[in-house]
Structures are given as C-alpha cells and as structure tokens.
Design brief:
three-stranded antiparallel β-sheet, Excisionase, 3 helices, alpha+beta, single chain, 76 residues
Length: 76
C-alpha cells in the first residue's frame, strides 16, 4: 500500500516538510507519480520503528548512572 506525504505525516505526527526532506536525502524511498510522492507504507513503518527504538536506547543510555570508579579515593 502506498501513501502520500500528507497521509504519512498525519499518521506519524511528523511535519510534511520533514518527510519531504527525508525523501530528498534518500532516507525514505518514494516514487514520484508526476504529482505526488508515494511512500511504501510498510517500508516507512519499518524506518519509523527503527528511529523510535534508537530514541529509546539513547534515553536509556542518558539515564544510566555512571558507575563509581574503585580507584578514586575521597581525600579531603
């Protein structure tokens, strides 16, 4: 199934211009039918899921406390 840029941006809550930037950059594959870009929804869903997973991993990494170094001694 193919969706237009407008449908895709509405489905995922991303601005249309950002979806177009991804298409122009080659990050999202799309077909131009003469009037509209058509995006394979299955491929874009996979791409969007990967982005969300990466965002979650970054948040986990940010919230992981730095372990104390056993070699550091508190000397006053």
């Amino acid at each position: 199934m193919f969706k237009t840029v407008e449908q895709t941006s509405a489905d995922i809550g991303m601005p249309e211009h950002q979806v177009l930037q991804y298409i122009y950059a080659g990050r999202i594959k799309a077909v131009h039918d003469g009037e509209h870009f058509l995006i394979n929804s299955a491929q874009f869903d996979t791409y969007h899921q990967q982005l969300e997973r990466i965002k979650e991993e970054i948040e986990i990494w940010k919230n992981t406390p730095i372990p104390e170094d056993v070699d550091i001694k508190d000397e006053d």
